[in-house]
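Recap from last week: sequence in, structure out.
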Amino acid sequence: MNTLRSPALFAGFAVFTLASLASLPAQALSSTPSTEPPSGMPPDDGSYEDLGNYDPTTTTHASYGITSTSSTNFQTINPLLITYEPCENKSGFDWTIKKDKQGEFGNTTFGAGYYAGFRVGSNAGRGSDPDKIWSDGTLRGYVTLFKIDNTILTVNGYAELKGTRGSYQFNVNAMGYDLYSKSGSAVLDERPSSTKKFFEASKTIWMGPLPVKVTAGASGDVGMVARIAYENGAVNFEASPKARVYGTARAAIDVWFASVGVSGELDLIKADVPNKARLALGPSSVGWSMNSDITLTSLSGRINLFACLSDECWKQTLASWSPLFSGTYRIVHMNSCFAPITRPVCGNHVCDSGETSTNCAADCPAPPPPPPPEEDTSICTLYPWKC
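Predicted structure tokens:
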């Protein structure tokens, strides 16, 4: 058995973060974001006209194609006091256990979302193909800036035992570009990371008579822990994605005698999702353990926009949210589980799932040959001298 190894006048900015996927060192942020105008602008002594919320929508932003998990499935747990759920009874030729959490927060001005999924599955061998047990973990992060939705990152890890051979595949993708990709069949213990600027979006917002261009951007550090090892004929698999994705907002105006600025801080989402599994494959059964939690802080914070022209000033709230979730939540904890391997029987006159005329001709007849091509009866083919 193989061993798995592994521009216009700039006047101010605000910071908002998507620290997704695990525990890179966090930049210290103020627990009470400033709502005062940035340096260089008049203080807010009551002279600013309050224009209210730029986007007062409070319903969940749902443009990422995921289904938000009910809040009743989010009960905080103590990571030091883990209890194991009963093993699921599995039978049949092929089966999969899927556990996940997902959510969407914010609105079409500033929004974020995530999907965290963890699976274990088994596939019985057909014909001469060996049996297989496998596991994969997936984490996706989403960001919305001024009605532009993007899947900013996808982190995947996969490992399998097929017969006596192990293999793995890990991938970190940001905005369609692979930042890390590794596959193989040897012991692996790597912690890749990189810095990436994801995307920007701009919007012109009228503050009184002033057209203010506000630009929001998202960038940050993305990485993961990718670990594979063998122990006593089993494979230990860990896929712990890591990222801290932060954003900037800046305001600009082409009117030289006006001033604009942004203040405040907004965390879009923070999540830590380590996935760990242990997979074993025997002559007539498979064994597995799977463990995953999510430490989550959803959209929270505040960003304000300010503008002044002569002695008139305006302010507007671009975003103001309280966290819907903040804590550690259970995804799955199953330990020392087993299931029998049920294989299709070649020769029982039933073409079972996965059987073909190639691996079991006794049960699955060969498909009929394709029909011959139709004869070309066009004039130019029959009488080429006429064309």
